[in-house]
Amino acid sequence: PQLYAELSKTGLVTRLLELARDEDLGIGGQPGDLTCKVTLEETQTLETKIASRAELVVCGMATIPEAVKVFAPNVTVEVKTADGTLVPKGTTLAILRGPSNEMLQLERPVLNLVGRLSGIATGTRVFNDAMLLAAGPDCKTKLLDTRKTTPGLRVLEKYAVRCGGGYCHRLGLSDAVLIKDNHLAGLDPAGVADLVAKAAKRAADIRASGTPIKFFEVEVDTKEQLAALLSLPDGTIDFILCDNFGPEALAEAVKMRDDSGKKVLLEASGGVNLETIGALAKTGVDRISVGGLTHQAVSIDVGLDAC
Questions:
Q1: What backbone torsions phi and psi does residue 107 show, to the nearest 5 degrees?
Q2: 84 within 8 A of 58, measured Cβ to Cβ
Q3: DSSP H/E element including 8
Q4: If phi over 0 gives left and psi between -120 and 50 gives alpha, with beta otherwise, what is residue 89?
């Protein structure tokens, strides 16, 4: 709930829901649901339930009150199952009561969101479970998302990853520094270290001016680049992202970091899947980020049924 409240403060969820309203009901909600206008009386009411039609990790219940404000202000919501809960097929997730016309214009947008977000949360749970099963109960590696999200849905998709047991990476380009290969193109390892040292100083100046920076991270493609970054003073970098390092190379990277005595944390990314995540976690890497948590997620079926 706290994470959703923080993400909702951005106003992006409301803007998304208003866009969904405009594309379904017309700009500003007008002319509205024409089928309901010609078939239903305004006095008709319904009591419905949102139910799972497959086993899933619930996500999207937190969005329903905001969706109601936009689509169906006279509908009341009773959430029965909290986001992040693993439930079997046929579980009642929420009960809705109110005017039939408002209920039916709310139905599809809410089901679309809950199905999409529950699909991400469920897939994240599968990834996290696979990592812990392979790496063992003492595994301290955190599973993270990326910026590979659906345009307009990022804050909700990252919320879904959290509901599935993963963690949020940066929300966007505006809240953290992540120096990637394209920023470092043409530089040798010494040049990489020099650029990063200067960038870290600029980041410190930006922080001092009052702009928060969540973290300072640098991507490396080779062990030589990693060694150059490990030569920088401790605290210069928060995270080093080892891109497309296989388990053997990643284990060597972890040893290099440990032998250096530096406190910088290591992150693995690139081509991570259910077959490889366990071996990567076994290396002792601190974080593994997986773009597929969002960009390869499949929606899960949920339905709205009359009680």
A1: -55, -60
A2: yes
A3: helix 2-8
A4: beta
In sequence order, which residues have a C-beta less than 8 Å from that of residue 205 and are 6 or more positions away? none
Would residue 158 show up in a list of annotated catalytic residues for this protein? no
Question: CA 270 to CA 217: how far, in whole Å?
Answer: 16
Annotated catalytic residue within 180, 214, 223, 282? 180
Element (H, E) at 20: helix 12-25
The per-residue pLDDT for range 168-204, each reduced to its tens digit, is 999 999 999 999 999 999 999 999 999 999 999 999 9
Which residues have a Cβ under 8 Å from the Cβ of 251 and sit 6 or more positions away?
Answer: 283, 284
33, 219, 238, 267: the catalytic one is: 219
What's this model's pTM, rounded to 2 decimal places?
A: 0.96
pLDDT averaged over every residue in the chain: 97
Residue 186 tokens, joined = 């043409």
Summarize pLDDT for 47-70 with one digit per residue, the tens: 999 999 999 999 999 999 999 999
pLDDT in tens, 124-166: 999 999 999 999 989 999 999 999 999 999 999 999 999 999 9
221 given a catalytic annotation: no
Q: How far apart are the first and last CA of the chain?
A: 27
- Single-letter code of the amino acid located at 168: C
- Measured between alpha carbons, how far is 13 from 23 in angstroms, rounded to an integer? 15
Tokens of 128: 């996290």
Q: List the catalytic residue out of 9, 89, 108, 207.
A: 108
Over its C-alpha atoms, the chain yields an Rg (Å, rounded) of 23
